[in-house]
Structure formats: C-alpha cells, structure tokens
Write a structure and sequence with these properties.
CATH class of the largest domain: Mainly Alpha
CATH architecture of the largest domain: Orthogonal Bundle
Strand content: 15-25%
Largest sheet: 6 strands, antiparallel
Structural class: alpha+beta
Number of strands: 19
Number of domains: 4
Number of helices: 23
Length: 805
Amino acid sequence: MNDKPHPGSASPAPGAIRTGARLLGSLASLTFAVQSAFDTRGLVTALAQHVLEIARADGFALFLVDYETGELEGETFERGANGAVGHARAVPRPNGFLNRVLRKETLVLDRLATAAAPGDEIPWQSGRFESVIGLPIVVGSSLHGVAVLGYRRGVVLTDRRRRALLYLADQMGLAVERLRMREEIEEKTRQLEEAQGSLRRIDEAKSDLISIVSHELRTPLTAIKAYTETLLDNSEGSSFPFHKKFLGIIDEECDRLSRMVNDVLDLSRMDSGRRRLNAVPVSLARLLEEVAPTVEPGLRERQVALGLQLDPGFPSIEADPDLLKQVLVNLLHNAAKFSPAGTEVVVTGSVVGDRVQIAVADHGMGIAPDQIARVFDRFYRIEPDGADRAPGTGLGLAIVKRVVELHGGTVRVESQVGSGSRFVVDLPREQQGFRALIQSMSPFFEQPELRALLQVSAEMIAEVMDAGIVSVMFFTEDGSELVIQAAHGLDPDTVARTRVRAGNSIAGWVAQTAESLLVPDIESDRRFRKMNHPQYETKSLLCVPLRIGGETVGVVNVNNKRNGLEFDSDDLGLLAAVVKRVAAALERVRNDSSPPAVEGTIRTIRAIVRARRSHLLPSGRRAFKLAVGLGRRLGLAPEEVEVLGYIARVHDVGMLSVDDGLFLTARRWSAEEHHDVEAHPLAGVQMLRTIEVASKVNEIVLAHHEHWDGCGYPRGLAREQIPLSARVLAVVDAFEAMTAGRPYREPYAEAEVIAELKRCAGSQFDPRVVEELCRMLAEDEASDEARDPAGSPGETREWRPDAVR
C-alpha cells in the first residue's frame, strides 16, 4: 500500500485542516446544545451562542411565526453580550426584508448601505449592521420562522457559506419543531386527562341522575296511573265517593313531578351561567310570609312548628327574591323531613358587619360526621342508621349551595348526632359585583369615542347578519331594566323611550335567563304573542345575551332580515358567535381604554363593515348556508359550526388590502398582483386581531387558501394539516365564485362548476368535502334558495384557476 500522495494531488493546507476541525467541533457542540434544550428560551439562547461563532456574525435574531396573528416574535443577540439584548414582535412589511425571506423561503442577503431600510424591522441594540442575511426556518412544508444574521462588514454569500447557513437553518428548524411538538403533546395530554376526568364525572352524574330520577318519577307516576284508572272505572257512577280525593292526589303528584323537573332545570341553568341575578331590596320577614303557604302543609303533616327570630333592625338585603325563596323553601323542607313531631324549626337572622347570616335550625336526629362533607353534593341523600332513606331527589341542598354562591355568599352546616342540625347562609348585604360591572361600562354610554365603538359594533352586527335593525341593550345600574345604548335602523325616539323590565317581554326574558332566543313569528309565538310593530318589516327576530366579565350585562336584538325570510337556527348561531366577539372586544377595551386600543378596535370593526358593503365578503346567504351545512355534515361540533358560520362571513376581510380593480377585469394578473392577492389571508388575520384572539378563527382565516396537495398559500399546508373548516371554506368559496359570476363574465352553470370541483378534488380541494357538497346540492336541488342563475344551455366557457378569487 502506497501512503504517498498522488503526484497530481494537493495536500490540504494546515490552516484549512484546523478550520475544518474547528467547524466540525462547533457543529457537534451546536447539535448537542439543540438536543439538550427543553424550552424555547433555552433553545434560542443556546442557538445564538453557537450560530454567532459558527457564522462569524456580529448579531443574531430568531423570529418564530405566531400562527394566531401571523406576526413574528423573537429575540435578538449580539456578539459579546450576555444573553438576549432585545425582544420584539414584527409585522412583515409587503416589500420588507423579513417578508422577502418568508416569501422566497431561501437565503436573502442585503447590503444595508444600499438597501432602503430592511434592518429597521429588527430591533438591534447597537444600531444597523452593514450586511444582514435572512434564513427561513422550514421543516418539510411548514414555515416556522426566520433567522437573521447581522454583520458589521460586507459579506459575500459564497457556496460554502450558503451550505453552512442552510445546515444551521435545518438544525434550528428541527429544534423548534421538536420543542413545539413536545409542547403540543404536553398540552394535548393535559387536555385529554381533563376530558377523561370530566367524562368520568359526567358519566357518574348521568348514572346517578338516571337511577334517582327514574326511581323518583316512578312513584308519582304509579300513583297517578292507579288513581286515574280507578276514576275511569267509576266514570259512569256520578256518586263515586272518592272522586274528589283521588283528583286531589293526582294533582299533588303532578305538582311533585313538576317540582322535580324544575329542580333539575334550575340547577342546569345556574351551572351554565344562564341564570342571572335580579337583585332587588328584599325583606327576610316578608319573604318568610310569602314562603309560609308553600312549606306549611309539610310542617303540619310532620306536626312541626315554624319560628322566626330576627335581630332588632334586621336590614333588607339585595338579593334575587325568587331564588332566595327557593333557598328558604328547600332548607325548611329539609328541616321538616328530619324533625320529630312536636318540635320547632327556627329561622334566625343576624347582622355581621356588611353581611347577614340566615340560619335554619331543627331538633332532629342530626348528621353523622362522615356525611356532613357530602350534604351539598348533587343527588346525595342522608341515610341515617336504622331509619328509612329520606325522600327527595337529593338536589335541594345542591340548589341551595349554588344559589347562595351566585349571590356571592357561602353556606355551611353545623350538626351533632341526636341534637339536630343548623344550616347557616352567609350573604352580602349589597350585590356590589353586578353594580360595579355595570358602572365600569358607563364610559361606553358617555364618552364619545367609546359610544362610537358601541355604534359601529351595532352596524357590524347588522352587516354580518344581513339585517335592517339591530339594537344593543344594557342593564341599568340596579339591574331592574334594559335600555338601548346603540342601534342601527331604529329611529331616535324609539331608542330614547324603550325600557324593558328584567324578565318581561323578549329582551327581558333573554337577559334574565341568558338563553339565546329565535322567534319565527312574534304574532303566533305562544310565549310572547303580540302584534308586530309597523317599523318591523318581518315578524321574525333574534335575541341573544351579551355577556361581559362572566355576567349577562344586556342583550342584542336583530330584526328585519333583508331577504324577507324568517331567521333560522343557523342565523341564531351566527349571531351568538358575532356577539361573543363583540363582547370580548368590549371587555378588552374596558380593561384597556387607551386611545390606541379603542382606535384599533374601531378600525377592525369598520373594516368588516366596509368589506361587506363593498361586496368583498360573501353577501349571498347561500355561501353561509353551504358552509354551516357542510360543517355539520362533516362532523364538526355545534360550537365549531357556529364559528365556521361567522368565519364564512368575515374571512376575506383581508381583500381590503388588494386593489379593487383586479376583480373588475378579465386580464391575467401580474406576478406582483398575484403576490398581493396571496397576502390577503395574513392581512385578514392582522385586521381582525384586535377583536379576534381565538386561535381557531385566525388559523382558519390564514389557511382558507391552502391546497390539499400543499401547493396553496401562505404556508403550503397539505391534507390534514389544513383545518377542516378551512377546507370547507375553500370549496364553498370556489363554488360561490364560479356560480355568482364576475363583472366581466356571466356565471357558470352549476353542472360545469360541480365538474370543475370534482376535477380539482385531490389537488386543490379535499375530496371528501367536494363529495359532501355535491351530495348536499343534489339533495337541495328542489329548494328555491339553493338555486343560482345558470348560463344558457349548451354555452361553454373556459374556466381559469384565477377565476376563484
């Protein structure tokens, strides 16, 4: 074997060998650091130290994409500094340095001495560098962010430097993806554990409910059936001696059934937050007088007396009288059940500072220590030793606890076996929480800029709902009435004089129960039957609660559907989704009423109004109905269908950033014009960010032009990476664009459009969504609303991909 070098070969220089060894050592150290990092900050710091050394750079910045807003967020580092020197969020400008890196997805070198201002997007601590190199962080088809290297000298992007930098970018991408996947797995695991626990509790509660309620229902139903059959057998005998008695028993058992069902419904409403307090001054003595007729039959049957002992000058308290009556009735019924004959149940009232204590005491058998902790559990019933199980559903004390907590109070039990029990309710004298919340909303009713926010919100609701009249009502400070604070389409006199008492009429009922309401015909609805006012062109209306800070503070009413048809359940879901976002925006402004926050929110809402009025957003009801119908048929949860309907109305708001003239001409777009159009999903996310913080909405808006095969924009997602709702919107948008026509062409025939969608299934569109749309259209063929004008029979047109805009 000859170890001598070949005469025609050249030995590597010692300096090159040392450089290569140093580079290999640095790359190995980088790989180890990346694998050892377990959080984003630690990863970025480790990367910075090694990248600055390997790339011989003077500055390093790593910006990661925030998929909710489309912005870039990251930190900057500089040679010689200990740790990060800056942290910032950056919005890539259309022709800026960061945007060019994102769009080209390749290395970009700029000489800042000759470039306009690409470095201005990056908050370097020591000012501008002479050269910057941008590296996209890409793994597979996913764009994770941008890395930027700054140099105080001019650099040349040689092949060797390019290869080294691409290797660095790959290492950074793999590390970021690994951490994000780990965080996602941990979050999914946590959610799964919570869901499993919740399902387990729900399953146990369901089993308890079925067991207890079926048993409790069986008893009165058996009695009702037996006595009814006896009456029927003796119906021809007018002198049947037990006729009146049996009817009385049937009536009592029906009342018992009604109470049982009402208990379950009341607890459900309070759990879901749909039961709002109607707090008014309440006298405990007066309340007991009103409760007495309800509890006296049970007390009399058990031969138990009722006593009242109030401190001198016991004050009125602010409470919901109906709910507080329920507390007293349940506590008194409970005390009577366990009281021996000849004893007394005593209600006492005392004042402790700014709170009151109401106690109900009996002289019964008491509660064992091991049962006290469970007396307020749902469906739990005390089982005394040597005695029959107490009657009832086991919901009475659970309702007491929930009502008291709803008032901002507490309830406890003091008991000793053989000596009776004492239930103590502690309540605030005044319900400051709700009053304080309404007071915090007063600037919206007084300050011009905040009133403008309310007004433009009403206009936005009207545009999204395609409705002629919208009114936004808020509670007065005492919570007794609702007044209109913003409206669209109502005359000023109506706005000024309209006042609705809580619990009355439609708005008052919705505000009291916090349940959304659809009224197909106000004149025939048995709940609110009344003549339709002349200002309302349709008899159908919607009303949903407006919730801020976890409380119902008002309602939103929508009337006069512009197409003259009745509102339906899809419209109700859409309104609920829109009002949730308006409420969230108002709450954020309530917490931060600085001019930038208010102006930004108003600007976003006005953008939606402007986009709808300029027909940039789908104005036809058909697109909305197709979207929610497809979502429902494809298995989306009801709340996801609700959100999809909202997104179907606003997802193209980013088109406001595109020249209107592009949509008025048949000419082909230039590369730059295509680039502007492809930027509209990101522009839409940025426009909506002040009112839309839910990641699902932003993700869907950002992804509605992604293609099934990964050739879409802006991120090149493919197949299941694309949210299902975004895949639905892609198909619906294409269908609507082709069947609705353009100023420069007639609509395409529906058969042609379906054929084109099928041709693009598997490339541009999700095949399952296309198949379901075709099936839905076939089923709806007979519906007038599901037909759009078609071209002349036999007419052929060339369809181009850029027709779907």
